[in-house]
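Hey L., structure's done. Input below.
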Amino acid sequence: MALSEISMDPDVLQGVPVVTGTTISVSSIVALVCQGLSEQEIIQRHPELTPADIVACVEFQHAGSR
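Output:
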């Protein structure tokens, strides 16, 4: 996972993990993945994301759940 793709800043969404350079939370992207949305569908909803951003969100969430 590229750590630069995920950031936590108290001034952005009160410090929850977000995709770097956005206000899109990791948990919101993981929720879309869990709902069964494809990578393409997620990017259609959030065109500022890349496929690598989506993977980073899932990996970040998985690493935190251990």
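The chain is about 45% helix and 5% strand. The longest strand covers residues 6-7.

-- N.
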